[in-house]
């Protein structure tokens, strides 16, 4: 006869708190991530610090969680602290009045649709990011300029689709990446200038999808480490 009794399953309730207008959740004894403010009252220019002190304990801010700011039409700029490593999926999607974001090179992962349908006008990828995820800028109708560093190794589907005002794409990758035909779906590559390394112009002119850009010219190498 089995006399063993199952131990009760216990789950710890997440520890969440607000400080200086931003909501956080503990992820370890020393780290936190930014989460959605239930009042959705993030307004204006938001600065996410590299670290915070709460109840006399210092925490490093390492992540912005999924949907933390999704759909917030009251924010216009975001400055992200230099300990953040991850921006999760949909974080800033449908932030229609978000026109600028400052991202440090500590960020190594930006989730899919993180900025889709936002009001961004320009974007420079941090040098630590290697993958441009699906739908990342889908429907960003005010986006004019994008800078892609040579550290990018993968560009996924629909990442720059429906970017109706995109007129300047700077790509410092020497060998054109193989990308799906829908990456620039409904983005007018006839009107968008593609800037690439001078020795790579011919390769881009022959590469699938990339060759759809009517204007492909040489650019100086962009150093993203100081951006």
Characterise this structure.
- The chain has 227 residues and is mainly β.
- It has a domain at 66-222: Ribonuclease Inhibitor (Leucine-rich repeat, LRR (right-handed beta-alpha superhelix), Alpha-Beta Horseshoe).
- The protein has one helix spanning 201-206, and strands at 16-19, 22-26, 31-34, 44-48, 51-54, 57-64, 75-80, 86-87, 100-102, 109-110, 122-124, 131-132, 145-148, 154-155, 168-171, 193-196, 215-218.
- The strands form 4 sheets. Strands 1, 2, 3, 5, 6, 8 and 10 form a 7-stranded mixed beta sheet that branches. Strands 11-13-15-16-17 form a 5-stranded parallel beta sheet. A 3-stranded parallel beta sheet has the order 4-7-9, with no helix packed on it.
- Residues 5-10 and 223-227 have low confidence and may be disordered.
- Pfam families: LRR_5.
Topology overview:
Layout: E1 16-19, E2 22-26, E3 31-34, E4 44-48, E5 51-54, E6 57-64, E7 75-80, E8 86-87, E9 100-102, E10 109-110, E11 122-124, E12 131-132, E13 145-148, E14 154-155, E15 168-171, E16 193-196, H1 201-206, E17 215-218
Parallel strand pairs: 3-6, 4-7, 6-8, 7-9, 8-10, 11-13, 12-14, 13-15, 15-16, 16-17
Antiparallel strand pairs: 1-2, 2-3, 5-6
Main features:
single chain; 227 residues; mainly beta; Leucine-rich repeat, LRR (right-handed beta-alpha superhelix); seven-stranded mixed β-sheet; five-stranded parallel β-sheet; 29% strand; disordered C terminus
Question: Architecture of the domain at 66-222, CATH level 2?
Answer: Alpha-Beta Horseshoe
Number of helices: 1
Low-pLDDT regions: 5-10, 223-227
* Fraction in helix: under 10%
Rg measurement, Å: 20 Å
The coarse overall form would be elongated
Organism: Wenyingzhuangia marina
Protein name: Leucine rich repeat-containing protein
InterPro entries: LRR_5 (IPR026906), LRR_dom_sf (IPR032675), Surface_bspA-like (IPR053139)
């Amino acid at each position: 006869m089995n006399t063993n009794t199952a131990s009760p399953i216990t789950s710890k309730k997440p520890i969440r708190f607000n400080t200086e207008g931003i909501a956080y959740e503990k992820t370890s004894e020393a780290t936190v991530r930014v989460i959605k403010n239930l009042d959705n009252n993030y307004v204006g220019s938001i600065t996410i610090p590299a670290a915070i002190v709460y109840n006399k304990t210092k925490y490093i801010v390492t992540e912005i969680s999924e949907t933390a700011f999704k759909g917030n039409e009251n924010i216009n700029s975001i400055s992200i602290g230099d300990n953040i490593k991850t921006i999760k999926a949909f974080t800033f999607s449908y932030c229609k009045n978000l026109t600028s974001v400052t991202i440090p090179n500590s960020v190594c992962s930006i989730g899919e649709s993180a900025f889709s349908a936002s009001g961004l006008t320009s974007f420079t990828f941090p040098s630590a990011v290697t993958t441009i995820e699906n739908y990342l800028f889908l429907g960003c109708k005010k986006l004019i300029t994008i800078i892609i560093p040579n550290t990018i190794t993968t560009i996924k589907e629909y990442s720059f689709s429906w970017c109706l005002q995109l007129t300047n794409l700077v790509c410092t990758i020497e060998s054109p990446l193989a990308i799906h035909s829908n990456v620039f779906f409904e983005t007018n590559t006839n009107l968008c200038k593609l800037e690439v390394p001078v020795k790579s112009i011919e390769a881009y002119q022959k590469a699938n999808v990339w060759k759809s850009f009517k204007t492909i010219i040489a650019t100086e190498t962009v150093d993203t480490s100081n951006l």
